[in-house]
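Side project, low priority. Logging it here so it doesn't get lost.
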Amino acid sequence: MLDIGASRPLPPSELEFRATRSGGPGGQHVNTSSTRVELVFDLAGSPTLTESERALARRRLRTRIDGEGRLRVVAQDERSQRRNRQLATERFCAIMRDALAPPPPPRRPTRPTRAATKERLEGKRRDAVRKRLRRPPADADDRADAPHAA
C-alpha cells in the first residue's frame, strides 16, 4: 500500500507501469534494454480517492494530467528498470502527497509595533543627516560668514 496522503492508502494495483527504451546511461548497443519507466495513474477513475480528494488533486495537478484525467510520471535516471520503477513510484507518492495536503492556514495580517515604527523613522533621520553631511558646502562666495582661504 502506498501512502499518498489520501484518506486511505492507495493499492499498487491502481498504478500502471510501462517500460520503454531509455535515452539515459548505458550507451548505444545492439542488446538495448527497456529501462525507462512510465507510471500512469488514472486520477479520474480511482476508486480509492474520495470525490473531494479527486477534485482537489485535479485542480492542483491540472498542468500534469492529460485530457483523460491520467497522471504520468517518468523515471529514466538509472540503468536498472527496477530502480527506475522505484524512483517513479517515489515521485508519484510525493506529487500526490503535495496535491492532497491541506491548504496552509490563511495569513493573519499584522501591524508593526510602535517601537518598530519609531526605530524605522529614527533610522531614516540618521540616514538623512549622514547624506546631508556628504553634500558639498553651499557656495562660499555667497555666504558672508565663510572663512577666506589665504
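Brief comment: Residues 12-100 form a domain with the Double Stranded RNA Binding Domain fold (CATH 3.30.160.20).
Revisit when time allows.
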